[in-house]
Amino acid sequence: MSVLPKPDLIVDTIESSVIPERPNDPKHYHYLVFIGRFQPFHSGHKAVIDEALKRADHVIMLIGSANLPRSLRNPFTVAERSAMIKGAYSAADAARIHCVALDDALYNDTRWLKYVQAGVKSVTGDLQTDIGLIGHSKDSSSYYLSLFPSWASVSVPNYHNLSATPIRDSYLMGAIPTHERTPESTRKVLNDFKQTDSYQLLHEEAGFIDKYKKRWESAPYPPTFMTVDALVVQSGHILLVERRAMPGRGLWALPGGFINPKETLFDACVRELREETLLKVPEPALRGSCHSQHTFDDPYRSARGRTITQAFYFQLKNDIKGLPKVKGGDDAAKAFWLPLAELDAKMMFEDHYAIITKMVGL
Question: Residue 170 in contact with residue 177, Cβ under 8 Å?
């Protein structure tokens, strides 16, 4: 995996801690910052922290993809990942390790940088103090380096090319990683989690995705899917559905789905919106209320594979008669209007929360 070119992907995709190359020095730091998702925490991550503890008074672990629902890509909570990390060390060393939740900010680089700065400042109290970034550098990225120009970087050797992705994937299919790949503290969390209903749901979904991807094994190249999503707002409320089937069964989502071969993206969006919500708005009025559209193409946004979606933002006129009636249909278990103030990232499917915040400007 190469160095990630965009900050909105660093937290979402980093598995082995990738930072830009900068000349190393013997300097001792007050704080060293290690950014990653740690899904799960493995021996490669631990090797980075081991070096950080030698080089700094304190280590700040910015644990990415916080405050999201459990998913195949993010099965473990921040609390569980913190237990994996701190449990791998003595009480004295664990006291020097500060685990801080770091939210994703897909499609908003500036917001992600703010989150990183706020996370570091919550420990240091001052962003101008002696701070460095630590991790394994696979190649150079002046772009990433430019994001934190006032912080030095410390590069550490790679550790057996370990990646969290195959460890996580095999675990969700039923295997427990070996002691060579993960510390005992991680295996304890994994064993405990394996006894829960949440694990069973993810295990079932992992099997579903495995079968889904096998249908495309004979394709000459990995498929890219095109979908549409409808973001409908009226009177401070947003129209959502509860997903009926896997993946993401039970989560909240924007109405939408795959396009048909002979329809435009906009026509597909209107069709999916009406099929999934039975929205009681005349079609001419609905089409005339389209405010804007935007493409969302994070490479990791869907467990099913590379999926690009076109989202359309509909602003319905306020009406003293109240919100239009809706009812779940097709792939939706139910459809409902939710006050914008009650949006909850922990309940949202895939990147739909990020889509909403991007387009509505929350």
Answer: yes
